[in-house]
């Protein structure tokens, strides 16, 4: 579905020094897969996601989505951001319908589709509110509904639940899982949470410290559907073993990074 080969990127830092963000990433994301991505801070996770979205250029390598080379943004891919990135002056309805408007869908149809999605993410009755009147969790529901409105093949999520409280995060995880179970989208989901990576993912990609490369890909053979019993999964032996393994790897990466820095 998504093929990434030899992806590299070097930025110029504020002091003029090169920042090697990605050091040759090769990755295949399967059709309808829920892929989660973990890695040390600054290893290029957001950079890679923006590249798949067509929002960031790269130096070398290639990305294709369903066989089409990525040259810029397109309606086949939607992104959900950590800070929601909603239009503050527009209502919930207009925010969700925005992408459909850009696609040229008529007002009656886009509003009907937007209302359906707003209900799906549990926000029926809030159509005429503006983002500033909503909690963080509610704003992220709008972000998800907006991303789904254009019926993308690929949903790109950059730490979407990082800015909400623990209970809301759990509810949003359950909602996202049930939406994905019903629609079978291809999802690439960045997170800082090992627990979240394992609960949601079919596979967890571990990126190494900068320059980011694939350090390991871990299969998550937990039963699906998972949306109805996240608590039960957390007590399963597989879940405990996989999260322990990921923690060991991440701890080693932090330690290597610390030693490299100490060595100058
Ligand atoms: N436009 C830019 N100009 C210069 N440097 C950049 C730019 N965008 C990203 N970087 C640098 O590239 C590296 C990778 O950034 P990126 O945001 O992709 O990492 P990340 O893994 O998503 O980080 P985090 O986990 O902290 O969100 C960082 O060192 C960052 O400072």
Automatic annotation (TrEMBL):
<keyword id="KW-0547">Nucleotide-binding</keyword>
<dbReference type="InterPro" id="IPR003593">
    <property type="entry name" value="AAA+_ATPase"/>
</dbReference>
<protein>
    <submittedName>
        <fullName>ABC transporter ATP-binding protein</fullName>
    </submittedName>
</protein>
<dbReference type="InterPro" id="IPR017871">
    <property type="entry name" value="ABC_transporter-like_CS"/>
</dbReference>
<dbReference type="InterPro" id="IPR050166">
    <property type="entry name" value="ABC_transporter_ATP-bind"/>
</dbReference>
<keyword id="KW-0067">ATP-binding</keyword>
<keyword id="KW-0813">Transport</keyword>
<dbReference type="Pfam" id="PF00005">
    <property type="entry name" value="ABC_tran"/>
</dbReference>
<dbReference type="InterPro" id="IPR027417">
    <property type="entry name" value="P-loop_NTPase"/>
</dbReference>
<dbReference type="GO" id="GO:0005524">
    <property type="term" value="F:ATP binding"/>
</dbReference>
<feature type="domain" description="ABC transporter">
    <location>
        <begin position="2"/>
        <end position="234"/>
    </location>
</feature>
<dbReference type="InterPro" id="IPR003439">
    <property type="entry name" value="ABC_transporter-like_ATP-bd"/>
</dbReference>
């Amino acid at each position: 579905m998504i093929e990434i080969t030899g992806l590299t990127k070097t930025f110029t830092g504020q002091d003029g020094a090169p920042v090697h963000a990605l050091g040759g990433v090769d990755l295949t994301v399967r059709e309808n897969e829920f892929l989660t991505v973990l890695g040390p801070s600054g290893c290029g996770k957001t950079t890679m996601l923006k590249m798949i979205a067509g929002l960031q250029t790269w130096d070398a390598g290639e990305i294709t989505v369903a066989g089409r080379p990525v040259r810029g943004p397109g309606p086949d891919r939607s992104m959900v951001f950590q800070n929601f990135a909603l239009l503050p002056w527009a209502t919930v309805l207009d925010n969700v319908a925005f992408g459909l408007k850009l696609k040229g869908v008529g007002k009656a149809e886009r509003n009907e589709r937007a209302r359906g999605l707003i209900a799906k993410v549990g926000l029926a009755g809030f159509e005429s509110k503006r983002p500033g009147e909503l909690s963080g969790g509610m704003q992220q529901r709008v972000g998800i509904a907006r991303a789904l409105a254009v019926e993308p093949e690929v949903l790109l999520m950059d730490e979407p639940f990082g800015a909400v409280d623990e209970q809301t995060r759990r509810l949003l995880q359950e909602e996202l899982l049930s939406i994905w179970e019903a629609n079978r989208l291809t999802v690439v989901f960045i997170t800082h949470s090992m627990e979240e990576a394992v609960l949601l993912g079919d596979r967890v990609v571990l990126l190494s410290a900068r320059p980011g490369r694939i350090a390991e890909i871990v299969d998550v053979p937990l039963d699906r559907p998972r949306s109805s019993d996240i608590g039960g999964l957390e007590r399963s032996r597989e879940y405990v073993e996989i999260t322990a393994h990921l923690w060991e790897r991440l701890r080693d990466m932090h330690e290597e990074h610390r030693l490299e820095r100490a060595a100058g």
